[in-house]
Amino acid sequence: MKNAATHKSGPETLAPGLPSGSRLPAHIAIIMDGNGRWAEKRLMPRSFGHKQGAEAVRRTVEAAVEIGLPYLTLFAFSSENWKRPVDEVNDLMWLLRSYLRKEMAALHRQGVRIQFIGARHSLAADLVGLIEEAETLTAQNQRLVFTIAVSYGGQDDIVEAARSLARRVAAGELDPDTIDSDLFAAALSTRGIPDPDLVIRTSGEQRLSNFMLWQSAYSELVFVDTLWPDFARQDLERAITVFAGRDRRFGGTGAV
Ligand code: FPP
Q: What is the pTM of this model?
Protein backbone atom coordinates (compact mmCIF):
# COMPACT_ATOMS: atom_id res chain seq x y z
CA MET A 1 0.00 0.00 0.00
CA LYS A 2 1.23 3.46 -0.86
CA ASN A 3 2.23 5.75 1.95
CA ALA A 4 0.26 8.65 3.42
CA ALA A 5 1.32 11.10 0.74
CA THR A 6 -0.85 9.28 -1.78
CA HIS A 7 -3.85 9.13 0.57
CA LYS A 8 -4.52 12.78 1.24
CA SER A 9 -8.08 12.34 2.38
CA GLY A 10 -11.03 10.03 2.57
CA PRO A 11 -14.62 10.51 1.45
CA GLU A 12 -16.51 13.76 1.88
CA THR A 13 -18.72 13.52 4.94
CA LEU A 14 -22.34 14.36 5.47
CA ALA A 15 -22.25 13.34 9.15
CA PRO A 16 -24.34 15.81 11.20
CA GLY A 17 -21.63 16.50 13.83
CA LEU A 18 -19.05 17.50 11.24
CA PRO A 19 -18.69 20.64 9.11
CA SER A 20 -20.60 19.85 5.90
CA GLY A 21 -18.44 18.91 2.96
CA SER A 22 -15.36 18.45 5.14
CA ARG A 23 -13.05 15.67 4.03
CA LEU A 24 -12.85 12.73 6.34
CA PRO A 25 -9.50 11.18 7.11
CA ALA A 26 -9.36 7.80 5.33
CA HIS A 27 -7.76 6.17 8.35
CA ILE A 28 -7.97 7.10 12.02
CA ALA A 29 -5.78 5.27 14.52
CA ILE A 30 -6.39 5.69 18.23
CA ILE A 31 -4.11 5.16 21.21
CA MET A 32 -6.71 4.40 23.86
CA ASP A 33 -5.30 5.68 27.14
CA GLY A 34 -6.61 6.51 30.59
CA ASN A 35 -8.63 3.44 31.61
CA GLY A 36 -6.68 3.07 34.85
CA ARG A 37 -6.96 6.75 35.82
CA TRP A 38 -10.67 6.72 34.99
CA ALA A 39 -11.19 3.84 37.44
CA GLU A 40 -8.87 5.28 40.11
CA LYS A 41 -10.83 8.56 40.08
CA ARG A 42 -13.88 6.48 41.01
CA LEU A 43 -11.99 4.45 43.62
CA MET A 44 -12.60 1.38 41.47
CA PRO A 45 -10.14 -1.32 40.35
CA ARG A 46 -8.28 -0.76 37.06
CA SER A 47 -10.20 -3.72 35.59
CA PHE A 48 -13.39 -1.66 35.83
CA GLY A 49 -11.73 1.07 33.75
CA HIS A 50 -10.78 -1.49 31.10
CA LYS A 51 -14.34 -2.85 31.07
CA GLN A 52 -15.71 0.63 30.45
CA GLY A 53 -12.92 1.08 27.90
CA ALA A 54 -14.32 -1.89 25.98
CA GLU A 55 -17.70 -0.09 25.94
CA ALA A 56 -15.96 2.97 24.48
CA VAL A 57 -14.50 0.67 21.79
CA ARG A 58 -18.02 -0.51 20.92
CA ARG A 59 -19.30 3.10 20.73
CA THR A 60 -16.34 4.28 18.67
CA VAL A 61 -16.70 1.53 16.06
CA GLU A 62 -20.42 2.31 15.84
CA ALA A 63 -19.64 6.01 15.36
CA ALA A 64 -16.99 5.22 12.73
CA VAL A 65 -19.54 3.19 10.74
CA GLU A 66 -22.16 5.95 10.99
CA ILE A 67 -19.72 8.69 10.00
CA GLY A 68 -18.58 6.63 7.00
CA LEU A 69 -14.92 6.25 8.00
CA PRO A 70 -13.17 3.67 5.79
CA TYR A 71 -10.38 2.56 8.20
CA LEU A 72 -10.15 2.55 12.00
CA THR A 73 -7.28 1.09 14.03
CA LEU A 74 -7.30 0.79 17.82
CA PHE A 75 -4.24 0.10 19.97
CA ALA A 76 -5.62 -2.43 22.46
CA PHE A 77 -2.47 -4.00 23.91
CA SER A 78 1.15 -3.08 23.26
CA SER A 79 4.16 -5.37 23.18
CA GLU A 80 5.21 -3.58 26.40
CA ASN A 81 1.86 -4.15 28.15
CA TRP A 82 3.01 -7.72 28.99
CA LYS A 83 4.99 -6.04 31.80
CA ARG A 84 1.74 -5.27 33.65
CA PRO A 85 0.62 -7.44 36.60
CA VAL A 86 -0.58 -10.84 35.37
CA ASP A 87 -4.15 -10.23 36.63
CA GLU A 88 -4.43 -7.05 34.60
CA VAL A 89 -3.05 -8.79 31.49
CA ASN A 90 -5.59 -11.59 32.00
CA ASP A 91 -8.42 -9.07 32.42
CA LEU A 92 -7.48 -7.39 29.14
CA MET A 93 -7.28 -10.71 27.30
CA TRP A 94 -10.70 -11.72 28.68
CA LEU A 95 -12.15 -8.41 27.53
CA LEU A 96 -10.84 -9.04 24.03
CA ARG A 97 -12.41 -12.50 24.01
CA SER A 98 -15.69 -11.21 25.35
CA TYR A 99 -15.72 -8.29 22.88
CA LEU A 100 -15.18 -10.64 19.94
CA ARG A 101 -17.77 -13.14 21.14
CA LYS A 102 -20.37 -10.43 21.71
CA GLU A 103 -19.71 -8.12 18.77
CA MET A 104 -18.39 -10.27 15.92
CA ALA A 105 -21.79 -11.17 14.41
CA ALA A 106 -23.21 -7.63 14.74
CA LEU A 107 -20.10 -6.09 13.19
CA HIS A 108 -20.30 -8.60 10.34
CA ARG A 109 -23.94 -7.63 9.70
CA GLN A 110 -22.90 -3.98 9.53
CA GLY A 111 -20.25 -4.74 6.91
CA VAL A 112 -17.24 -4.26 9.20
CA ARG A 113 -14.07 -6.16 8.36
CA ILE A 114 -12.21 -7.11 11.54
CA GLN A 115 -8.48 -7.74 11.45
CA PHE A 116 -5.66 -7.93 13.94
CA ILE A 117 -2.04 -6.84 13.86
CA GLY A 118 0.63 -7.73 16.42
CA ALA A 119 2.47 -10.81 17.70
CA ARG A 120 -0.39 -13.29 17.75
CA HIS A 121 2.00 -16.15 18.52
CA SER A 122 2.25 -14.66 22.02
CA LEU A 123 -1.53 -14.94 22.58
CA ALA A 124 -3.46 -17.90 24.02
CA ALA A 125 -4.59 -20.46 21.43
CA ASP A 126 -8.32 -19.93 22.08
CA LEU A 127 -7.97 -16.16 21.59
CA VAL A 128 -6.07 -16.73 18.34
CA GLY A 129 -8.95 -19.05 17.34
CA LEU A 130 -11.49 -16.26 17.95
CA ILE A 131 -9.32 -13.75 16.09
CA GLU A 132 -9.10 -16.07 13.09
CA GLU A 133 -12.83 -16.72 13.22
CA ALA A 134 -13.57 -12.97 13.20
CA GLU A 135 -11.09 -12.32 10.40
CA THR A 136 -12.46 -15.16 8.26
CA LEU A 137 -16.12 -14.30 8.88
CA THR A 138 -15.68 -10.64 7.98
CA ALA A 139 -12.96 -10.95 5.30
CA GLN A 140 -15.19 -9.81 2.42
CA ASN A 141 -16.69 -6.79 4.23
CA GLN A 142 -15.85 -3.36 2.90
CA ARG A 143 -17.79 -0.76 4.86
CA LEU A 144 -15.16 -0.23 7.56
CA VAL A 145 -11.82 -1.97 7.98
CA PHE A 146 -11.42 -2.21 11.74
CA THR A 147 -7.92 -3.21 12.83
CA ILE A 148 -7.17 -4.11 16.44
CA ALA A 149 -3.51 -3.95 17.46
CA VAL A 150 -2.77 -6.58 20.14
CA SER A 151 0.70 -7.41 21.42
CA TYR A 152 1.74 -4.85 18.82
CA GLY A 153 4.92 -2.79 18.80
CA GLY A 154 5.92 -0.40 16.04
CA GLN A 155 9.60 -1.27 16.37
CA ASP A 156 8.82 -5.01 16.23
CA ASP A 157 6.74 -4.38 13.10
CA ILE A 158 9.73 -2.68 11.42
CA VAL A 159 12.21 -5.34 12.60
CA GLU A 160 9.95 -8.14 11.34
CA ALA A 161 9.62 -6.41 7.94
CA ALA A 162 13.41 -5.99 7.71
CA ARG A 163 13.85 -9.64 8.62
CA SER A 164 11.42 -10.86 5.95
CA LEU A 165 13.10 -8.72 3.26
CA ALA A 166 16.55 -9.91 4.41
CA ARG A 167 15.37 -13.54 4.08
CA ARG A 168 14.22 -12.88 0.52
CA VAL A 169 17.56 -11.23 -0.31
CA ALA A 170 19.46 -14.18 1.24
CA ALA A 171 17.35 -16.61 -0.81
CA GLY A 172 18.29 -14.71 -3.96
CA GLU A 173 14.67 -13.70 -4.61
CA LEU A 174 15.14 -9.98 -4.05
CA ASP A 175 17.72 -7.48 -5.29
CA PRO A 176 18.54 -5.21 -2.30
CA ASP A 177 18.77 -2.21 -4.64
CA THR A 178 15.05 -2.58 -5.42
CA ILE A 179 14.05 -2.08 -1.77
CA ASP A 180 12.27 1.26 -1.49
CA SER A 181 9.74 2.66 0.97
CA ASP A 182 6.76 1.11 -0.89
CA LEU A 183 8.34 -2.34 -0.84
CA PHE A 184 9.24 -1.91 2.82
CA ALA A 185 5.68 -0.77 3.69
CA ALA A 186 4.34 -3.87 1.92
CA ALA A 187 6.39 -6.03 4.31
CA LEU A 188 4.83 -4.43 7.41
CA SER A 189 1.85 -5.96 9.20
CA THR A 190 -0.28 -3.07 7.95
CA ARG A 191 0.10 -3.95 4.26
CA GLY A 192 -3.15 -3.17 2.49
CA ILE A 193 -4.14 -0.49 5.01
CA PRO A 194 -3.36 3.14 4.14
CA ASP A 195 -1.18 4.97 6.64
CA PRO A 196 -3.22 6.74 9.32
CA ASP A 197 -4.11 10.31 8.37
CA LEU A 198 -5.01 11.04 11.96
CA VAL A 199 -3.65 9.55 15.16
CA ILE A 200 -5.64 10.38 18.29
CA ARG A 201 -4.36 9.74 21.80
CA THR A 202 -6.66 10.13 24.76
CA SER A 203 -5.96 11.03 28.41
CA GLY A 204 -3.71 14.04 27.81
CA GLU A 205 -0.48 12.07 27.27
CA GLN A 206 1.45 13.28 24.24
CA ARG A 207 3.54 10.43 22.85
CA LEU A 208 3.25 7.56 20.35
CA SER A 209 4.36 4.79 22.73
CA ASN A 210 5.70 2.54 19.96
CA PHE A 211 2.47 2.69 17.92
CA MET A 212 2.67 2.59 14.10
CA LEU A 213 6.06 4.31 14.01
CA TRP A 214 6.65 3.86 10.28
CA GLN A 215 3.02 4.39 9.31
CA SER A 216 2.55 7.63 11.26
CA ALA A 217 5.40 9.48 9.50
CA TYR A 218 2.95 12.05 8.09
CA SER A 219 -0.03 11.52 10.37
CA GLU A 220 -1.70 14.46 12.02
CA LEU A 221 -1.54 13.96 15.79
CA VAL A 222 -4.44 15.03 17.98
CA PHE A 223 -4.16 14.70 21.76
CA VAL A 224 -7.36 14.91 23.76
CA ASP A 225 -7.76 15.14 27.53
CA THR A 226 -10.76 12.79 27.64
CA LEU A 227 -9.97 9.52 29.41
CA TRP A 228 -10.67 6.59 27.07
CA PRO A 229 -13.74 5.18 28.90
CA ASP A 230 -15.43 8.58 28.42
CA PHE A 231 -14.54 8.83 24.73
CA ALA A 232 -17.71 9.45 22.76
CA ARG A 233 -18.82 10.24 19.24
CA GLN A 234 -18.44 14.00 19.93
CA ASP A 235 -14.77 13.48 20.83
CA LEU A 236 -14.23 11.63 17.56
CA GLU A 237 -16.03 14.35 15.60
CA ARG A 238 -14.06 17.08 17.36
CA ALA A 239 -10.77 15.37 16.48
CA ILE A 240 -11.90 15.04 12.85
CA THR A 241 -12.81 18.74 12.80
CA VAL A 242 -9.32 19.62 14.14
CA PHE A 243 -7.84 17.36 11.45
CA ALA A 244 -9.93 19.05 8.74
CA GLY A 245 -8.44 22.41 9.77
CA ARG A 246 -4.84 21.23 9.49
CA ASP A 247 -2.68 22.10 6.51
CA ARG A 248 -1.06 18.85 5.35
CA ARG A 249 1.98 19.42 3.16
CA PHE A 250 3.76 16.03 3.30
CA GLY A 251 7.12 17.83 3.27
CA GLY A 252 6.19 20.07 0.34
CA THR A 253 5.10 23.69 0.38
CA GLY A 254 1.38 23.12 -0.16
CA ALA A 255 1.51 24.81 -3.58
CA VAL A 256 0.36 22.47 -6.37
C1 FPP B 1 -4.58 2.21 28.39
O2 FPP B 1 -5.08 2.65 29.62
C3 FPP B 1 -5.42 1.14 27.86
C4 FPP B 1 -4.99 -0.12 27.65
C5 FPP B 1 -3.61 -0.56 27.90
C6 FPP B 1 -5.91 -1.18 27.18
C7 FPP B 1 -6.95 -0.79 26.19
C8 FPP B 1 -8.00 -1.82 26.22
C9 FPP B 1 -9.33 -1.61 26.15
C10 FPP B 1 -9.88 -0.30 25.89
C11 FPP B 1 -10.33 -2.70 26.34
C12 FPP B 1 -10.26 -3.90 25.47
C13 FPP B 1 -10.08 -3.63 24.01
C14 FPP B 1 -10.91 -4.05 23.02
C15 FPP B 1 -10.54 -3.82 21.61
C16 FPP B 1 -12.21 -4.69 23.28
P17 FPP B 1 -4.17 2.52 30.90
O18 FPP B 1 -4.54 1.26 31.59
O19 FPP B 1 -2.72 2.62 30.54
O20 FPP B 1 -4.65 3.76 31.70
P21 FPP B 1 -3.78 4.69 32.68
O22 FPP B 1 -2.70 5.30 31.84
O23 FPP B 1 -4.77 5.68 33.17
O24 FPP B 1 -3.25 3.79 33.76
A: 0.93
